[in-house]
Amino acid sequence: MLSPDRADDISLYIHFPWCVRKCPYCDFNSHEAKRDIDEHRYVNALISDFDSSLDTLADRFVKSIFLGGGTPSLFSGHSLMQLLEHVRSGARCRENMEVTLEANPGTLEHDDFGRYLEAGINRLSLGVQSFDDACLAAIGRIHTASAALKAVENARKSGFCNINIDLMFGLPGQSVDMSVRDCEQAMACETEHISFYQLTLEPNTRFYLHPPRLPDHDTLFDMQQRLQASLENRGFMQYEVSAYAQPGMHCRHNSHYWEFGDYLGIGAGAHSKITARDRVSRHWNEKHPERYQKKIEGGASWRHCRPIERDTLIIECLMNALRLKDGVRLDLCEQRTGQDRGAITDRLGPLCDEGLLSIENDRVRCSAWGYLFIDEIIQRLLP
């Protein structure tokens, strides 16, 4: 039987499903805002969604909140303050709780940052993607490089001292040197955290239907190696496949997710992973924002639930945790899957024999060589 520690912290994810324009590579639950968003209505729906889940939060501290999208920065500081105050009044929150807001440079004014700080947001994640105007145009972004730099400057002037810059590599027409210049520009902003994601062609996106010409595999490998070296030379340590941080500035919310911790998701299309006494379940909400709001307002069910099969718990845990540079403690795997370490290490044996994984000091992690092939390792863990 699973016996989770009810004192184990939980994270909260809040989804905002609208954006100014849907990017051609984006497969997230985001919808173009055809008209002004009724912020009051959606925040009320989020509050009702949250209140319906209070039993899940009983006896647990919320360690982090992540406002993602879509584009949460389309919402005013006043609306976000109303929402976050309600969360704090209904849940036990850690005193040093990390509260992250995703924001896009093309949707922000200088005054917005100060209002977000007043709302209790203490970490900003800016969706810059590139500092090259041609690359930004090629991937359908609505902002320019100068707007991105201005957003970082304004955020810092407003008092934010924990800023992440999201960048992408492997873009149409991008060379290795261009990707490195993006990285150098992000570091010149003196940000605390940089995330680098490879552009991939996901089903149900415009790029998947009409693929642009992308850099070849050798070029992508060179980009990864150059970017990693540039970041580490400037004091950014890689702690996850796509994440680099200055010492002590890793994203606690995302780290909790990769360690297979529990999280509650509210909002249209939000997902949750919840551990109860006898099972671990995944929950997901109605995706379409209008239907989501109408179901909540009408008292209809908007949430779906599926237990994770016991046989796949280990796989799901390891698929997440092995993305972390330091891997995961075996005792944490045991706690969060209900499986003994013998069952866990048996599954990892062949990969350890090949030198792709190592188990040392009660911790499993990818070897330096294996970390280059994390996607292949994850595929081999699948049944």
In summary, what is this structure?
The protein has 383 residues and is an alpha/beta fold. The chain contains 15 helices and 17 strands.
CATH evolutionary superfamily of the largest domain: Aldolase class I
CATH class of the largest domain: Alpha Beta
The rounded Rg comes to 21 Å
Taking all residues together, what is the mean pLDDT?
94
Number-wise, the strands total: 17
CATH third-tier fold name of the largest domain: TIM Barrel
- Give the structural class: alpha/beta
User: What characteristic shape results from the CA principal axes?
Assistant: globular
| Sequence stretches where pLDDT stays below 50 over 5 or more residues | none
Order of adjacent strands in the largest pleated sheet = 9-10-8-7-6-5-4-1-11
Number of helices: 15
Helix content class:
25-40%
Strand content: 15-25%
How is the main sheet built?
Answer: 9 strands, mixed
Q: Total domains, how many?
A: 2
Second CATH tier, the architecture of the largest domain: Alpha-Beta Barrel
Distance between the termini: 22 Å
Could you describe the 3D structure shown?
There is one protein chain. The chain has 383 residues and is of the alpha/beta class. The model has no long low-confidence stretch (mean pLDDT 94). It folds into two domains: 10-257, Alpha-Beta Barrel (TIM Barrel), CATH 3.20.20.70; 310-383, Orthogonal Bundle (Arc Repressor Mutant, subunit A). The chain has helices at residues 39-51, 54-57, 77-90, 110-118, 133-138, 145-158, 176-188, 206-209, 217-233, 252-258, 289-298, 310-321, 330-337, 341-353, 374-381; strands spanning 10-16, 18-19, 31-32, 61-69, 92-103, 123-129, 163-169, 193-198, 237-240, 243-245, 263-266, 271-275, 280-285, 303-307, 328-329, 357-360, 363-366. The chain is built from 15 helices and 17 strands. The two termini are 22 Å apart.
